[in-house]
């Protein structure tokens, strides 16, 4: 049986990829990447996300506003819930906290995160969480707002094993990007080696963070098998095992019918 991979987080609507979408999709199929989630980062860009998801049967979408975007339309719980009714929308996000790029009073960021968690609870769809230099507050708000109820995924994970375990205790999955293949990511590779395979996803976060051996190039979903290969080597298991487990986890978390391949 040929290997099948799921890219749990990509931005196929971004110019680097959407302008050559036919070729990107062809390379995905050649690489065995049969599922992908095109993630929303603002309400303004959502139509471009939906165009991709509505065009390609095996690509799904999420709705949310990225924590980095200060000058953008602020979503309400009601707006997010209404947008999430679309049959191709399988998650709320990406959302979360990012204290790395932005400084000062970031209470607006925390309030936005709370809004997304409340929307996910209301529509019973999982969260896609981005956290950077903000793990303590991220976990605190997840607990305070009941993020364990919809559950979700900690995307492009770069935090400690302790943070991963805390998120897993809340019912979340941990998703590894191409960063896990980087030489300077020893601590992250240890997390990938230890956490339960049944709580793991893989992603590209394309067009960013291309894995070795493509580091520095425009990333795309066809590169996600390199993430799987790295994790398999770290854990002393086969790529087939990583592919099968992460595909199962992807379909389960986002409630995607297995026959949509």
Broad shape = globular
Proportion of beta-strand residues: 15-25%
Do you know the CATH topology? TIM Barrel
* Reported CATH architecture: Alpha-Beta Barrel
Distance N to C terminus = 14 Å
Q: How many helices?
A: 10
Helix content: 25-40%
The description of the largest β-sheet is: 8 strands, parallel
Q: Would you report the number of β strands? A: 8
Calculate Rg over CA atoms.
17 Å
Given the helix and strand composition, which structural class is it? Answer: alpha/beta
Strand order of the largest sheet: 1-2-3-4-5-6-7-8
- Low-confidence segments, given as residue ranges, are none
CATH superfamily caption? Metal-dependent hydrolases
What is the domain tally? 1
What is the CATH domain class?
Alpha Beta
Helix-strand topology string:
EHHEHEHEHEHEHEHEHH
Mean pLDDT across the residues is: 97
Structural overview:
An 8-stranded parallel beta sheet has the order 1-2-3-4-5-6-7-8. The protein has a single domain (5-253), classed as TIM Barrel (Alpha-Beta Barrel). It is of the alpha/beta class. The mean pLDDT is 97. The chain has 10 helices and 8 strands.
Write the layout of secondary structure elements.
Blueprint: E1 5-10, H1 15-18, H2 21-31, E2 33-38, H3 46-55, E3 59-63, H4 77-83, E4 89-98, H5 107-123, E5 127-132, H6 135-144, E6 152-154, H7 161-169, E7 172-176, H8 186-194, E8 200-202, H9 224-235, H10 239-253
Parallel strand pairs: 1-2, 2-3, 3-4, 4-5, 5-6, 6-7, 7-8
Helix pairs in contact: 4-5, 5-6, 9-10
Observed structural traits:
8 strands; TIM Barrel; alpha/beta; 261 residues; 10 helices; eight-stranded parallel sheet
